[in-house]
User: Which sequence fits this backbone?
């Protein structure tokens, strides 16, 4: 019997990881340790999810090569423990980061999926939940115990 895929979420910053404080209207960082409580649909996916958040979320406009190295190091340090990785990132510069990491990591046998959103994860009509669920589903998809992506 195949083991349950292990997925690591890496929150770097961006709208996808924010929730609105409805008293003040300010955005604050989502606690990914409570992910399954807030997004119970993830329980339907056949995987186990862990998460790492950068100490200080990076606004997409402030993402730079130094941060790309930090993301790459997190993946490298955890590569043997997980079957796939989902990087949550600000949407404005996600294409630059994902492109840079594609050159930093070549010939991998595990998926690294990038996703973001236009609206915070706590908003009523957010795209964040669907983007997150889809990314985890893609990162965890396996056939004969090997990642499809």
Assistant:
């Amino acid at each position: 019997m195949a083991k349950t895929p292990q997925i690591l979420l890496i929150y770097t910053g961006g709208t996808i990881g924010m929730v609105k404080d409805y008293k003040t209207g300010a955005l604050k960082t989502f606690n990914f340790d409570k992910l399954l409580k807030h997004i119970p649909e993830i329980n339907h996916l056949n995987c186990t999810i862990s998460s790492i958040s950068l100490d200080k979320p990076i606004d997409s406009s402030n993402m730079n090569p130094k941060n790309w190295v930090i993301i790459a190091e997190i993946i490298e340090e955890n590569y043997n423990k997980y079957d796939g990785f989902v990087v949550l990132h600000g949407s404005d510069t996600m294409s630059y980061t994902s492109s840079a990491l594609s050159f930093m990591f070549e010939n991998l046998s595990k998926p690294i999926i990038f996703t973001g959103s236009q609206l915070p994860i706590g908003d009523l009509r957010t795209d964040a939940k669907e983007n997150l669920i889809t990314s985890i589903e893609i990162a965890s998809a396996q056939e004969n115990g090997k990642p499809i992506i």
